[in-house]
UniProtKB/TrEMBL annotation:
<dbReference type="GO" id="GO:0035598">
    <property type="term" value="F:tRNA (N(6)-L-threonylcarbamoyladenosine(37)-C(2))-methylthiotransferase activity"/>
</dbReference>
<protein>
    <recommendedName>
        <fullName>tRNA-t(6)A37 methylthiotransferase</fullName>
        <ecNumber>2.8.4.5</ecNumber>
    </recommendedName>
</protein>
<feature type="region of interest" description="Disordered">
    <location>
        <begin position="19"/>
        <end position="41"/>
    </location>
</feature>
<dbReference type="InterPro" id="IPR020612">
    <property type="entry name" value="Methylthiotransferase_CS"/>
</dbReference>
<keyword id="KW-0812">Transmembrane</keyword>
<keyword id="KW-0472">Membrane</keyword>
<dbReference type="GO" id="GO:1990145">
    <property type="term" value="P:maintenance of translational fidelity"/>
</dbReference>
<dbReference type="InterPro" id="IPR002792">
    <property type="entry name" value="TRAM_dom"/>
</dbReference>
<dbReference type="Pfam" id="PF00919">
    <property type="entry name" value="UPF0004"/>
</dbReference>
<keyword id="KW-0256">Endoplasmic reticulum</keyword>
<dbReference type="GO" id="GO:0005789">
    <property type="term" value="C:endoplasmic reticulum membrane"/>
</dbReference>
<feature type="domain" description="Radical SAM core">
    <location>
        <begin position="199"/>
        <end position="430"/>
    </location>
</feature>
<keyword id="KW-0479">Metal-binding</keyword>
<dbReference type="GO" id="GO:0051539">
    <property type="term" value="F:4 iron, 4 sulfur cluster binding"/>
</dbReference>
<keyword id="KW-0949">S-adenosyl-L-methionine</keyword>
<dbReference type="InterPro" id="IPR007197">
    <property type="entry name" value="rSAM"/>
</dbReference>
<feature type="domain" description="MTTase N-terminal">
    <location>
        <begin position="63"/>
        <end position="171"/>
    </location>
</feature>
């Protein structure tokens, strides 16, 4: 650029430009000869990048989850609800543990062996580098166990938030939700009953009528997890039953830690609930009652007998006695004596002919003498219970019974064997050979050779594997019996009842998936929602939605940064000119 002497006066700054320099109009005209060149890009590589997130990114909602549940039917119901919610949000529930990205382990705290299996499963998941979420009664009762360190936990009353816990775990965070459900300061029965679920058996609906109990048994660890009694309102339970029948269910199980105590916390009772439920049971469908302790059924014996005689209610009841020694029952704090138990059993056997009564017995409770045990043996010999659950006593940590003087291990084992021998000394179904019975077919036998049905008394009847029988009530002639079953031959000209008003859901299909649930906002744990209009997301659609979300987020970020810089610049200029 030419220079000008210091003493030369310039009239305008443009005078500095020499005659040889391009004028602005020359530059403008030169642009007409510029040919834009398109930038080439690898279309295949671009599409691949669009469809595949970066290798270090984690997108919740597209992983495979394997679930394992131990324990009672209440725990199984919780597991079905958790599986349903996860599937509804796009996760794939798999039966192959090795291919799963995350293991959801739903535990039982009743006995030591169940917790041992649970602990071993955690160890195996860690060895296989799986993400882990713990659920059920074990972590709820003792969340500070050493082998829970660094793992996510969801409490028994927080199962409606399982999606949040799983998402955070997938992202690498450890989350613990162990609180209680409350409304107006009062504890609720738990999560909503209308949540999506995947039934283990599409023909059977398990409904938890309440959680917790009113007892304080010295051996029970479940109380530490489930707490005091909290019942669901009758109208909610009836609505759940009606929805189940509309989805092809033909058998309902009522469950809880103590069904007989239902309603005492909300001003109602079990018979009131049952009379409402039988009104909505379609012809050919059945209702099965869960376990009830003797104290809470004594005052309702007359009503319970009427209900158990109803044609759509199984004449079956599970009443645990635990011991036939009043001394042992007192140490257990069972709040009844053997005479109370016998009164319940004798009354029901008289008023409900043929009723099946199941019971539980604990062998080797602390302080149990040989005489105490012999009283229990005599009870079994006298009543010949067709269904008997014999358990060796295991001291559970944190329970009063764990601090008592223990019966030697070899004595406990021997008593368990002796009582089992007595139980197997009689066959409860031999006298039924030749009977014609109506049975409801609901599942396949473990050996896959038969279909499993139950008669009016909830006794197991094996029938031929005819696909047209599944979910139907048929008539059979009993021709053989065993210790735990009978075998029946279908009557050719008998009427077949199809109980439900709808076709059953397919195995693994999500129940109760309403639009309101799909559109429900997440709570504060999840910072972003991943849309899911179908139970199983189409992977390409999911990636497209996520890509658009990312573009939207990037655009919003750039606008925010630009506005911030503009504000800083404006503030700087104001300061300079002032």
């Amino acid at each position: 650029m030419p220079s000008a002497s210091c003493d030369t006066l310039l009239d305008d700054i443009e005078d500095i430009v020499s005659q040889g320099d391009l004028k602005p109009q020359d530059r403008h005209s030169a642009r007409k000869h510029v040919v834009p060149k398109a930038r080439k890009r690898n279309t295949q590589k671009y599409l691949q990048e669009e469809n595949s997130p970066p290798s270090d990114s984690t997108i919740p909602g597209i992983q495979k989850i394997w679930m394992r549940t131990w324990g009672c039917s209440h725990n199984n119901s919780d597991g079905e609800y958790m599986a349903g919610q996860l599937a509804a949000y796009g996760y794939e529930i798999t039966e192959n543990a090795s291919e799963a990205d995350l293991w959801l382990l739903n535990s039982c705290t009743v006995k030591n062996p169940a917790e041992d299996h649970f602990r071993n499963s955690i160890k195996k998941a860690q060895e296989e580098n799986k993400k882990i979420v713990l659920a059920g009664c074990v972590p709820q009762a003792q969340p500070r166990q050493d082998y829970f360190k660094g793992l996510s936990i969801i409490g028994v009353q927080q199962i409606d938030r399982v999606v949040e816990v799983v998402e955070e775990t997938i992202k690498g965070h450890s989350v613990r939700l162990l609180g209680q459900k409350k409304a107006n300061g009062k504890r609720l029965g738990g999560a909503r009953l209308d949540l999506p679920k995947i039934r283990k058996n599409p023909l059977i609906e398990i409904i938890s009528v309440n959680t917790g109990c009113l007892n304080a048994c010295t051996y029970c660890k479940t109380k530490h997890a489930r707490g005091n009694l909290a019942s669901y309102p009758i109208d909610e339970l009836v609505e759940r039953a009606k929805q189940s029948f509309q989805e092809g269910v033909c058998e309902i199980w009522l469950t809880s830690e103590d069904t007989g105590a239902y309603g005492r916390d909300i001003g109602t009772n079990l018979p009131a609930l049952l009379w409402k439920l039988v009104e909505v049971i379609p012809e050919g469908a059945m209702l099965r009652l869960g376990m009830t302790n003797p104290p809470y059924i004594l005052e309702h014996l007359e009503e319970m007998a009427k209900i158990l005689n109803h044609p759509r209610v199984y004449a079956f009841l599970h009443i645990p006695v635990q011991s036939a020694s009043d001394t042992v029952l007192m140490e257990m704090k069972r709040e009844y004596c053997v005479a109370d138990f016998k009164r319940v059993v004798d009354f029901l056997k008289e008023k409900v002919p043929g009723i099946t009564l199941a019971t539980d017995i604990i062998c080797g409770f602390p302080g149990e003498t040989d005489q105490d045990f012999q009283e229990t043996v005599k009870l079994v010999e006298d009543y010949k219970f067709p269904s008997l659950f014999i358990n060796q006593f295991y001291p559970r940590p944190g329970t009063p019974a764990a601090k008592m003087v223990q019966v030697p291990a070899q004595v406990k084992k021997q008593r368990t064997k002796d009582l089992s021998r007595v139980f197997h000394s009689y066959n409860p179904y031999d006298h039924k050979i030749g009977e014609r019975q109506q049975v409801l077919v609901t599942e396949e036998s473990f050996d896959s050779k038969f279909y499993v049905a139950h008669n009016r008394f909830y006794e197991q009847v094996l029938v031929p594997k005819n696909p047209t029988f599944m979910g139907k009530m048929i008539e059979v002639d009993i021709y053989e019996s065993g210790k735990h079953f009978m075998k029946g031959q279908p009557v050719s000209d008998a009427k077949v009842y199809t109980p439900s008003i709808s076709k059953p859901l397919a195995k693994g299909e999500v129940s109760g998936l309403t639009e309101g649930f799909r559109n429900r906002p997440r709570s504060h744990l999840s910072s972003a929602r991943h849309p899911s209009a179908a139970v199983r997301r189409d992977s390409a659609s999911s990636r497209l939605v996520l890509h658009l979300q990312k573009l939207h987020q990037d655009c919003a970020l750039r606008v925010s940064v630009g506005l911030a810089l503009f504000a800083l610049l404006l503030a700087f200029l104001v300061k300079v000119y002032n």
